Structure formats: C-alpha cells, structure tokens
Amino acid sequence: MKNETSLVDLPVILKALEQLRQERRTGTLFITTDSGHAVRFVLNKGDVTGCHYRDKVGDEALPLVKGIQAARYSFVVSASVPEDSRTRPDPSALRALMAGGERKPTPSAGAPDVSIGRLGQAVRQIQHELAKFIGPAAVMVCNEYLEQAGEIIESADLMRMIDAVAGEVGDHSSAQQFREQVLAELQEDGAT
User: Fold this and answer.
1) Which residues fall within 8 angstroms of residue 23, CB to CB, at 6 or more apart?
2) 110 in any annotated domain
3) What burial class does residue 103 get, using C-beta atoms within 10 Å of its C-beta: 0-12 exposed, 13-18 middle, 19+ buried?
4) Is 106 part of a structural domain of the chain?
5) For the whole prediction, is pTM greater than 0.85?
6) pLDDT digits 0-9 by tens, 2-24
7) Domain-located, residue 107
8) In terms of DSSP H, where are the helices of the chain?
9) Residue 155: per-residue pLDDT
10) Are residues 73 and 123 located together in one domain of the fold?
C-alpha cells in the first residue's frame, strides 16, 4: 500500500483501510487530518482491533472519523500489536463507516421516541444525567459531541449521543447505569 503524503478525501483513506483488511495486514494505519488531529487504526491480521481519534477510542471514535474532510495517511507494519478491548470498534459500526453509511443504533429496551420539538430538552436531560457521573464537565463533553456529530434531529441521534457520552463515565457498569438512568428520565419527563 502506498502511503499518502498529500491530502486526500475520507473515502480514499477508507479504501486503503479496506485494502489492508483484505490483505490481512498487521500494523497501524496513521492518519493526520487537515486540522492536525491524529487518528490510528490498529490491525491484527486484517482485523481492526483498535481505533483512536484524539481522546476517543473504539465506537466513540468512529463518528469523529466520519467527519474527516481531508487527511494524510501512512501504514506502519508491525510483527504484532497489543490488543485492548476498549479500543476495538463494533464490527457493524466499522462496516457502516467503511460503506459510507451511518450505523443504525441498537436501541435498548425503551429507547426514546422524542418529538422534534422536545429534542433540545432531551439533550439538556442527557447533560443533567451525565453531570451526576462526571460533574460540570458534562456540559463540555456534550457540547464537544454535538460539535463533532452535528445536530440532533431525530431520536436515533439521541441514542448515538447517549452511547457516545456514556464512554466518558468510566467503567462499563457505570456507563450502563448512566444509559439506563437517562432513558428512564427521558421517558418519565414525557420526552418519549
């Protein structure tokens, strides 16, 4: 695979990643965005075992990757790569990114069905619930997510936001507790 030192579009980079997967390569695909952000895809025999974008990893990093307009990339071959389950993206989310589509969230039981007029209120409720876990940084985390992901225009966008910001909570059980509390709060307040 040829390393690309000039700026290219995201589809070109995703095509290179797919080529590395098909060739069952082991190593790291380094990407530097036009705004200077670092992205890494870690591959082990063609399997994407890690995705890193700024301070996000795994599934949380994929929506940010989707927002890349232009970048440079290079692949560094490794004999082996360390694996960390926290950085492994969900295979269906990765396939959706590779296909250029958007992953449909897997709704949990009771996923919110929020009317258009109530979406802003629902976002504030997510911030409120997140603050119970991480304090005042919740507003910054939610604003950063919205800046990267764009507008919340439907209920599925809320589910993606909930899943993304849950990663800031810490351990898996606390993240799941946050998800459950947010969904319960949204349902209780009639946002559903």
Assistant:
1) 1, 46
2) no
3) buried
4) no
5) no
6) 676 788 888 899 999 999 999 99
7) no
8) 10-22, 62-66, 91-99, 119-134, 137-149, 155-166, 172-188
9) 74
10) no
